[in-house]
């Protein structure tokens, strides 16, 4: 036999690595479907990508049972099996524009068309970060719900799905004899945060992220627990249909699904070029945290259903669709140490010192661990490999350790007995989750108060960040927040790194802060329980700092929007001589102590709570909020039992609409909203 006919030998290292990868991927698949993941998605994707590359390089070693050849699924489950009449496939991934372009080229070639989206015809959708689910309806009634499972056999979760309020029990309109709908069950961010607040209060570990929490909630043995979690659903694909209309495209199918009463995400778009596809994905990458749910990318599908059939599928994924994945918001890194910071209220907060890792769009070196109980519940030790999560502007958080990589004999971490700054014994009040330094003169507290005073949400003094505040305290230039306005700049000029320009810029920022609204000054004082909304109400109602100081707790509590807890806290704060001296120093420095003038607008919305969803023609997002607040109303971001009405604009959020329907809250169009602004009466 000639050398030409001999197959190239496969390196032993490649064979062994493929075996390790297959084993690890299957193990992590089982952990994921058991809602106990040890790896973030990004790290799992890297393992899968490495195995795919090796199998492409050595195709003779591709095994039928390789995880690249099927969809992952749990091995043991308390739920009955459901065989899918049409396979529920996963999607292949593109991680950058070049991979997306390469996929588009394969699609065009498979259809024998020019390499352009205009010729092919694409639909762009958001990739919801949740759990795939199939819903089967017969004669308009929900008869079965199932997970994806391994793509061929899933789990029967019908009882649990019936507790998800946005999923219709009975379809609207002319329902076909059989219709199967695929979609994503997810946990809204607001519900996720509420669950974690409840976990902390109960001394239980925080949930890792909305997707894993949704998966765990959906697979509860008690369906009432699932119903209590606030899960939601977006439908994105048709499965089996018997007796339905003739549909030609995916976009048309989405519109038909919406007509039957299914929640369809409103953010889908048609694309006329691959540049349009990328623009869609980039737009939502920038605005992903403006949504009420988490997304981890965009999905691109060939629109025409006949072309989808022509392209077909591999063993695992359709060739006519691809997921364009966003940079991960969870990564693993090394936990170098655990330290404790002392905040402006004396709260002692443990935080992680990390080996730098790029996650959520920035390099992270520190992350919160919340409190003593959470460190113990997460079971993280210095030296661990840990999962770090950073979503948007949210403070980075250590989710938990990768226990499989913990060295034997790793030492645990003990919460300090004394304040790490002033050595005062730390105190944990009865019934509270947090521990405090009770020394009011603690330099850690003083620095925290000064940093908070200078922060963007308060007096917004650019240039007075953490390092400069610490330096000025160390040098004795400032002791309390009012000292910022009497800094000896001749002494500052003697310090290294402070030239004429930097001093001039800092002086200008401090001078500019003197004209900040009274509400900002109240926020900057850090009065316990008083947030931005309460500060705004106090400033508008009393009109001057002196009148707030003179008011009793009863006077303050009588104001709409101010409860007794805030009122008592504000009155107690200004009863202290130290607070009064501080205000006099502000007055001498020329700070603005006056509140806004009485509102010009008629107070037609006092006592009313209005939620707006979707775009309005005559109002910007900020403009509609101002229109409500200036008339005495409230404009929260979510619908609750306290909501007076929901204003509906273009492309409204389905979760808000469904919540309004569930609670039987009136909905208004833009014309009716304007009428309400003028008269104060619901149409």
Topology:
Layout: H1 12-33, H2 41-57, E1 81-83, E2 93-94, H3 97-111, H4 117-120, E3 122-128, E4 131-138, E5 141-147, E6 153-155, H5 158-161, E7 178-186, H6 189-201, H7 210-218, H8 223-228, E8 232-242, H9 250-259, E9 269-271, H10 274-286, E10 295-302, H11 305-311, E11 321-325, E12 330-342, E13 347-359, E14 362-368, H12 372-378, E15 385-389, E16 397-401, E17 426-427, E18 435-437, H13 443-454, H14 466-474, H15 489-492, H16 500-513, H17 518-524, H18 532-542, H19 545-550, H20 553-557, H21 564-575, H22 577-589, E19 610-613, H23 621-629, E20 645-648, H24 654-662, E21 667-668, H25 670-679
Parallel strand pairs: 2-11, 19-20, 20-21
Antiparallel strand pairs: 1-6, 3-9, 3-10, 4-5, 4-7, 7-8, 10-11, 12-13, 12-15, 13-14, 13-18, 15-16, 17-18
Helix pairs in contact: 1-2, 13-14, 17-18
Biggest beta sheet attributes: 7 strands, antiparallel
The CATH homologous superfamily of the largest domain is termed: DNA ligase/mRNA capping enzyme
**What class, by secondary structure content?**
alpha+beta
CATH-defined topology of the largest domain: D-amino Acid Aminotransferase, Chain A, domain 1
Q: State mean pLDDT (0 to 100 scale).
A: 88
Helix content: 25-40%
Low-confidence stretches: 1-6
CATH architecture level-2 label of the largest domain: 2-Layer Sandwich
Strand segment tally: 21
Counting H and I runs of at least 4 residues, what is the number of helices?
25
Shape: globular
> Any idea how many domains?
5
Rg, nearest Å: 29 Å
How many angstroms does the end-to-end distance come to? 90 Å
CATH class category label of the largest domain: Alpha Beta
Subunit arrangement of the protein: single chain
* Strand-residue proportion: 15-25%
């Amino acid at each position: 036999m000639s050398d030409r006919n001999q197959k190239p030998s496969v390196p032993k290292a490649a064979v062994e690595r493929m075996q390790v990868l297959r084993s690890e991927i299957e193990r992590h698949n089982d952990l994921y479907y058991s809602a106990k993941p040890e790896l973030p998605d990004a790290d799992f994707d890297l393992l899968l990508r490495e195995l795919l590359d090796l199998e492409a390089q050595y195709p003779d070693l591709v095994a039928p049972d390789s995880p690249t050849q099927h969809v992952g699924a749990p091995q043991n489950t308390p739920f009955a099996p459901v065989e899918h009449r049409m396979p529920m496939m996963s999607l292949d991934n593109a991680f950058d524009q070049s991979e997306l372009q390469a996929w588009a080229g394969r699609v065009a070639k498979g259809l024998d068309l020019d390499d352009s989206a205009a010729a092919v015809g694409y639909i762009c959708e958001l990739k919801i970060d949740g759990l795939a689910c199939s819903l089967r309806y017969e004669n308009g009634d929900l008869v079965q719900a199932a997970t994806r499972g391994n793509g061929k056999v899933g789990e029967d979760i019908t009882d649990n799905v019936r507790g998800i309020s946005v999923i219709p029990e009975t379809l609207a309109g002319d329902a076909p004899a059989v219709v199967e709908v695929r979609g994503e069950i997810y946990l809204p961010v607001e519900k996720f945060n509420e669950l974690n607040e409840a976990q902390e209060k109960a001394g239980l570990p925080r949930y890792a992220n909305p997707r894993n929490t949704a998966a765990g909630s959906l697979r509860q043995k008690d369906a009432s627990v699932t119903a209590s979690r606030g899960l939601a659903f977006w439908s994105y694909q048709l499965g089996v249909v018997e007796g339905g209309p003739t549909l030609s495209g995916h976009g048309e199918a989405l519109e038909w699904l919406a007509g039957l009463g299914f929640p369809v995400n409103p953010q889908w778009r048609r694309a006329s070029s691959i540049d349009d596809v990328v623009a869609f994905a980039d737009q939502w990458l920038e605005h992903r945290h403006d949504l009420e749910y988490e997304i981890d990318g965009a999905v691109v599908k060939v629109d025409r259903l006949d072309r989808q059939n022509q392209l077909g599928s591999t063993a695992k994924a359709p060739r006519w669709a691809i997921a364009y994945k966003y940079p991960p918001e969870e990564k693993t890194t090394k936990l170098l140490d655990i330290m404790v910071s002392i905040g402006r209220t004396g709260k002692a907060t443990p935080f992680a010192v990390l080996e730098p890792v790029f996650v959520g769009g920035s390099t992270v070196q520190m992350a919160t661990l919340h409190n003593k109980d959470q460190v113990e519940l997460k079971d993280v030790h210095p030296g661990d490999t840990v999962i770090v999560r950073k979503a948007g502007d949210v403070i980075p958080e250590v989710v938990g350790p990768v226990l499989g990589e913990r060295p034997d004999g790793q030492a645990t971490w003990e919460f300090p007995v004394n304040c790490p700054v002033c050595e005062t014994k730390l105190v944990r009040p009865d019934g509270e989750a947090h521990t405090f330094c009770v020394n009011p003169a603690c330099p850690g507290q003083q620095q925290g108060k000064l940093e908070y005073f200078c922060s963007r949400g308060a007096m917004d003094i650019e240039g007075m960040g953490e390092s400069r505040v610490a330096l000025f305290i160390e040098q004795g230039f400032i002791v309390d927040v009012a000292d910022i306005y009497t800094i000896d700049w001749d002494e500052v000029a003697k310090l290294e790194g402070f030239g004429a320009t930097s001093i001039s810029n800092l002086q200008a920022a401090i001078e500019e802060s003197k004209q900040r609204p009274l509400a900002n000054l109240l926020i900057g004082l850090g009065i316990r329980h008083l947030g931005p909304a309460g500060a705004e109400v106090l400033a508008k109602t009393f009109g001057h700092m002196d009148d707030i100081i003179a008011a009793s707790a009863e006077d303050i509590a009588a104001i709409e929007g101010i409860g007794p807890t805030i009122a008592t806290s504000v009155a107690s704060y200004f009863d202290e001589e130290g607070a009064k001296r501080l205000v006099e120093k502000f007055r001498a420095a020329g700070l603005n102590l006056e509140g806004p003038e009485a509102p010009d607008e008629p107070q037609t919305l006092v006592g009313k709570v209005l939620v707006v969803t979707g775009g309005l023609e005559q109002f910007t997002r900020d403009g509609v909020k101002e229109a409500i607040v200036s008339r005495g109303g409230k404009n929260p971001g979510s619908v609750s039992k306290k909501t007076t009405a929901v204003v509906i604009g273009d492309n409204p959020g389905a979760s808000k609409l469904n919540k309004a329907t569930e609670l039987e809250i009136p909905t208004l169009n833009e014309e009716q909203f304007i009428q309400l602004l003028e008269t104060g009466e619901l149409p």
